[in-house]
Amino acid sequence: MSINIAKANQGEFYPFKLTIKANNDILSGLLAKFDSDIEVEGTFVVDNDNVYIDSNLEYSIIFQCDRCLVDVKKDFSVRCMASFYMLGEEAIEGYYSYTNNLVDMTLPVQQEIVLNLPTRVLCNQDCKGLCPVCGINLNEGSCDCNKSQNVENNTSNNPFSVLKNLK
After folding, report:
1. Which of 85, 77, 74 is nearest to 40 (CA)?
2. What is the DSSP string of 80-137?
3. What is the Cα–Cα distance from 79 to 86, expressed in whole angstroms?
4. Where does residue 129 rank: exposed (0-12), middle (13-18), buried (19+ CB within 10 A)?
5. Looking at residue 22, what DSSP letter applies?
6. I need a labelling partner for 29 at 20 to 30 A (CA). Which of 50, 111, 136, 164 fits?
7. CB under 8 Å to 63, separation ≥6 — which residues?
């Protein structure tokens, strides 16, 4: 989504609010999807041909717990600051370009979302995960798997089982 700056006066701050359609492609490689579109609200100021934006992003993502694979909804409120230069002028490092008095916020918003993705998502801090033998969710109940017996039976296929005898 774009902000039209055609009628903006130099040095004056203008509020804006827009909605950017959530694109699950930026979450590729994760077991996650957006639960809502991205709400962007903030202010912009024009200084010569540069535009400076300070905004807040509000959105929700549904992840899968890293231990038990249960869906976990996380709400985010992220600050997004971006600077733009007019295409055709000298490029400025760290700035995005804009043309025709339209400042497109999509790329800076997507980059801010990726930078704020959690490295680990748990349904709760005490999540027990899944049984490595039968796959039951150990948060919902226990299983009858004798883990030590199954581990011993599987050591013949394990190339590291020889390390067990080093003590």
Report:
1. 77
2. EEEEEEEBTB---TTPEEEBTTEEE-HHHHHHHHHHT--S---SSTT---B-TTT--B
3. 23
4. middle
5. -
6. 136
7. 30, 31, 32, 71, 72, 73, 74, 118, 121
Which of 118, 132, 46 shows the shortest CA–CA distance to 76? Answer: 118
Pick from 8, 39, 40, 36: which is nearest to 24 by CA? 36
**In the numeric block, which tokens belong to residue 33?**
């999807």
9 in Cβ contact with 32 (< 8 Å): no
From 156, 123, 157, 160, select the one nearest 139 (Cα to Cα): 123
| 136/10 Cα distance (integer angstroms) | 62
Across the range 137-164, mean pLDDT stands at 71
Q: Which residues pair with 45 in a beta bridge?
A: 13, 52
pLDDT digits (tens, 9 = 90+) for 100-133: 999 999 999 999 999 999 999 999 999 999 988 8
Helices and strands, counts by H and E, the chain: 2, 8
- Where does the pLDDT of residue 156 fall: very low under 50, low under 70, confident under 90, or very high at 90 and above? low
* Residue listed under structure tokens 């299983």: 143
Q: How many residues belong to the chain?
A: 167
